[in-house]
Amino acid sequence: MQHVKRTILVTGASSGIGRASAVSLLNQGHEVIGISRNCQQFTYTHPQFNSVEIDLSDLTTLPNHLKQLLKQYPAIDSIVFSAGRGQFSSLEEFSFIQIQELMNLNFISQSFLAKGFLPALKRKPLADLIFIGSEAALTGRRKGSIYCASKFALRGFSQALRDECAKSSVRVSLINPGMVKTDFFQSLSFEPGTHQSQHLYAEDVANAVNYIINARVGIIIDEINLNPANNVIQFKNNA
Questions:
Q1: What CATH class does 7-235 carry?
Q2: DSSP type of residue 216
Q3: Hey, where are the domains in the chain?
């Protein structure tokens, strides 16, 4: 393991896995730029933390935001792609707009961000692109058609991008967590079981991010699958 100071962009930094990753990376001495749709949700006082308010789902303005980020923070050498949301229904219950919005945030915005930063990252001595996928990228399940599609797309994208970057300094990794006890489930009709063996914590995923960031030069962690010891889904009373 190496502990070299890095400048890391973290999306979805206001909550859940993104927030846990940002805090953990700061505690290790890295500089963190946190992107969130509402910076007021995560006001973290730290000399090496900067927050940037961007709505990643707004693809029309995203390219300009990326240009500004590159100018403002030229030292960025790694990105943790944590932004995303869940929506689960049978396909016919989705509107056309809902399908587009979920794919835009969970997949297309990630590809925009990677494309915007890749030329600059290839000029760094070492750079990491760490995508937060999902167990939904491994197996399609009932009522998860669009969410699974977005995560399957992200997995295929990361695999192809890893191959494209193989001769450069850019390492591409994917973390596929099972159910993580976060606000992700707040608006959903189900959630993981309450016992600690029935869910992951956001810090568990942050630890995997740390492992990738601190891996010595010369190795690539392709993909990490994390799951609780017992996969338990419980439905809420109002479901």
A1: alpha beta
A2: P
A3: 7-235
- Distances from the Cα of 2 to the Cαs of 59, 114, 119, 213, in angstroms? 36, 24, 24, 8
pLDDT band at 92 (very low <50, low <70, confident <90, very high): very high
- Residue 184 pLDDT grade (very low, low, confident, very high; cuts 50, 70, 90): low
Residue 1: Cβ within 10 Å count: 8
Q: What's the one-letter identity of residue 8?
A: I
pLDDT of residue 179: 78
Across the chain, mean pLDDT equals 89
Q: CA 26, CA 28: separation in Å to the nearest integer?
A: 5
Give the start-end residues of each E strand in the chain. 7-11, 31-36, 49-53, 78-81, 127-132, 170-177, 190-192, 223-226, 233-235
Q: Is the dihedral of CA 46, 48, 54, 57 positive or negative?
A: negative
- Give me the phi and psi of 100, to 5 degrees please: -65, -45
